[in-house]
Amino acid sequence: MTYHQFHRYRHTQALRDLFQETSLNVTDMILPIFVNESLSQKKEITSLPGVHQWALADITEEITTAVSLGIKAVLLFGIPSIKDDTGSQADNPNGIIQKAIAHIKATAPDIVVIADTCLCEYTSHGHCGIQKEGYLDNATTLLRLQSIAVSYANAGADIIAPSGMMDGMVYAIRQALNHHHYPQTSIMSYSVKYASSFYGPFRDATGSGDPFKGNRKHHQMNITQSREALLEADADITEGADILMVKPAGYYLDIIAKLRQQFNHPIAAYQVSGEYSMLKLAEKQGIVDGQMAMIESLTAIKRAGADLIITYYAKELASFLKTKK
Ligand code: PBG
């Protein structure tokens, strides 16, 4: 008996390619896009290096780039110029997302448009729902989400992505979409979304609350939970979700793997703003090789079992995959 020579799988690039178990494809990536109603031209988000807030006027630039790189799907976040108690701009037929969807579909009719559906970017208090006597009123919030989802579907969104972790949100939205004759519009639910510290740069970008207060613990999942993730995912499937999502991704690979074992639905994972920014800052400081860190962080998410990855790296990865061919 001799020891096994694992190096036989590895000692040339061709052998490594031959035995490679997991690969990244541009078609698995979803590009997040921020559209800001108050801007007349794009503006870089300082806490998210290389990522911009886009003005309606130049959103076609980002879409044209995405299409030329082979990206198939975008996830839209709107930043309205007016925020109020009820997030009234979210379902305004002439709101920023409704207009952005029309612009995008006019530029690239085939790109899959996913609309993040939550109130936090639209409310003056930055909470994900309607507040009543200091509490989040789940039932009233569901009515708002129904109206917003129908409005996005009406504007041409292919997929509605409720991200507020309201109880019953998937069921409420499915009913509303069916009732308004949008049976073909899908739901990608932020099923397993943790009350994470890694959303800081996003909240900075959207002006949706103090990133460090962690004030979403009463509706987002406790970071200690694992079995509860399966309950959340199971409930979303029962309610009619087409795609399950785990968020954040990189620190929750165990959860992705668990969902992958238990369910056959497509699974998306969101590599969130903080995960991305930390790597970008480490790259700037010369602590890690930027390209390798990008590939390693995304490969880990794919290897854990995600089918789709929402990532601020989408364009950079797509460019990399193109040069590799
Ligand atoms: C809520 C929403 C958030 C993110 C996506 N959708 C913020 C939150 O839940 O506090 C975070 C994404 C990121 O950090 O990249 N609409």
How are the SSEs ordered, and which strands pair?
Blueprint: H1 13-19, E1 29-36, E2 43-44, E3 52-54, H2 59-68, E4 73-79, H3 96-107, E5 112-117, E6 131-132, E7 135-136, H4 138-155, E8 159-162, H5 169-179, E9 186-193, H6 200-206, H7 227-239, E10 243-247, H8 253-262, E11 267-271, H9 273-284, H10 290-304, E12 308-311, H11 314-324
Parallel strand pairs: 1-3, 1-4, 1-12, 4-5, 5-8, 8-9, 9-10, 10-11, 11-12
Antiparallel strand pairs: 2-3, 6-7
* Small-molecule components bound: ligand PBG
- Oligomeric state of the chains in view: single chain
Total strand segments? 12
Share in β-strands = 15-25%
Summarize this, please?
The chain is of the alpha/beta class and 325 residues long. Helix content is 39%, strand content 17%. The structure holds ligand PBG.
Could you walk me through the main structural features you see in this protein, from its secondary elements to its overall organization?
The strands form two sheets. The protein has an eight-stranded parallel barrel, surrounded by eight helices. Strands 6-7 form a two-stranded antiparallel ribbon. The chain is of the alpha/beta class and 325 residues long. The N and C termini lie far apart (42 Å). Helix 2 packs across helix 3, helix 3 runs parallel beside helix 4 and helix 4 packs across helix 5. It is globular, with a radius of gyration of 20 Å. The protein binds ligand PBG. The site of ligand PBG has 10 residues, from helix 6. Ligand PBG binds next to helix 6.
